[in-house]
Amino acid sequence: EVQLQASGGGLVQAGGSLRLSCAASGLPFDDIVVGWFRQAPGKEREMVSCISTYNMNTRYEDSVKGRATISGDEAKNTVYLQINTLKSEDTAVYYCAAGEYCGLGDMDYWGKGTLVTVSS
Fold it and tell me: H-helix or E-strand containing 10?
């Protein structure tokens, strides 16, 4: 059974940092794409960042470029998303997902979200 467990959300002040974790099981961790997506209240879900675990290529949504770093730890089957200089517009439920390609419609497996609230 495939499981993706996201954690690390919480309440953070604007300008602060947060590291989200996505622990994966039931997947070939060295041959998948893991992505972080977010959905803010009243908005559509959007891609934040993805990493290909087989070559460690990464991709970032424009609003987090330069502020976010996605990384993978194969030994722990875990993908991390570090976001610095948090802004109020980063407030959202963050989901991790896995699939063959990086894209909202390309992910085959989804975990439950973790809420990130940025206070100004």
Answer: strand 10-13
